[in-house]
């Protein structure tokens, strides 16, 4: 009988202590609500899961405390930034910003932002220029090192949400500003200029980190800035880009722009002392479009209402409106020796006849279709946009902006 009384007393003390612990957690709550803070202290996380959606598991720790387990999935915030679902304590340890709740209020949507000279292994990290969105004057090279979240990650998607650097020189070389991406298993060309809205996909090379370096010349006054989102994609993620695709588009329709495409001319003169190009030299990469269900072919055409939307070679300033952006300005085949796009096995959209070539350049583009699979086009530019012994200089070229439309089977 005595031992039973002691057991009842001991049980009452344990219950009281547990209730006191929960109340203490609630008193410290300054984020969401009274009940959520207690869970923060006991959260466990599946750090090996970066692609699964939602879900949580719980078990009861005598007498009242629940241990909650949930995946570190992507979460959305009110300011349109994407975060990762983490515990409050873990987000604070990462110097992240809590923007809301996730996992049925058991986790915190944590946005992680970094700037120069930092390292991350957190999915959905934002890499921004110092003082962003204010203009950055330039200075020493600004780098970000990206390590994989875990062994199940195969690819890094780099979203240039807002990236404006100085234009290339008049011959297309990135000499004033540049952004480089190294360490991955994908060759990424040196880029510069206005890259806002562009996205590239870089394969991880095992556990080797991917390094992003932005070089901005302090001696050149320019309102440069950048905000880049770094998304780690699991090996089985539906959004992963196929091999050989530096860029990857989805959807039945869309617009594909060359790097640094814009309707305004480059104000820097080329070595030939003519208006320079916006095209970047030494490009050789593939752009892939996912074939949607029920669609068997694809059509490419110039963007409507933009006379500069296919100006790869030639003299833009010397072409009048009857040539620029029209069939008369189109060049193809063996005449495309320096800068061109390659579209496999094309047919002319208006006639359904074989185009007879897969190379296209010049100052205009005739709409073509292709049933070759996968849907892909290739971009090639040479090392010199200026005059050579064999070719006149390219003057005021913008690059290309092509609209695509998939064709139902």
- Helix fraction, binned, reads under 10%
SS class: mainly beta
Give the SSE order as H and E letters.
HHEEEEEHEEEEEEEEEEEEEEEEEEEEEE
**Termini Cα gap:** 84 Å
For the record, the CATH architecture of the largest domain stands as Sandwich
Q: For the residues shown, what is the average pLDDT?
A: 84
CATH level-1 class of the largest domain: Mainly Beta
> How would you describe the shape?
globular
CA radius of gyration is 27 Å
- Tell me the name of the CATH homologous superfamily of the largest domain: Spermadhesin, CUB domain
What is the helix tally? 3
Q: Which blocks of ≥5 consecutive residues have pLDDT under 50? A: 13-62
Beta-sheet strand percentage? 35-45%
Question: In this structure, how is the largest beta sheet organized?
Answer: 8 strands, mixed
Give the count of structural domains: 3
The CATH topology annotation of the largest domain reads as: Jelly Rolls
Fold topology:
Blueprint: H1 2-27, H2 36-40, E1 44-46, E2 56-61, E3 65-71, E4 74-76, E5 82-86, H3 88-93, E6 97-102, E7 107-114, E8 118-120, E9 125-128, E10 139-146, E11 153-164, E12 177-182, E13 199-203, E14 210-216, E15 225-234, E16 247-249, E17 253-257, E18 284-289, E19 295-302, E20 310-311, E21 330-332, E22 340-342, E23 346-348, E24 359-362, E25 368-370, E26 375-380, E27 399-408
Parallel strand pairs: 1-3, 7-9, 8-10, 16-18
Antiparallel strand pairs: 2-3, 4-5, 5-7, 6-7, 9-15, 10-14, 11-13, 11-15, 12-14, 17-27, 18-26, 19-25, 19-27, 20-27, 21-24, 22-24, 22-26, 23-25
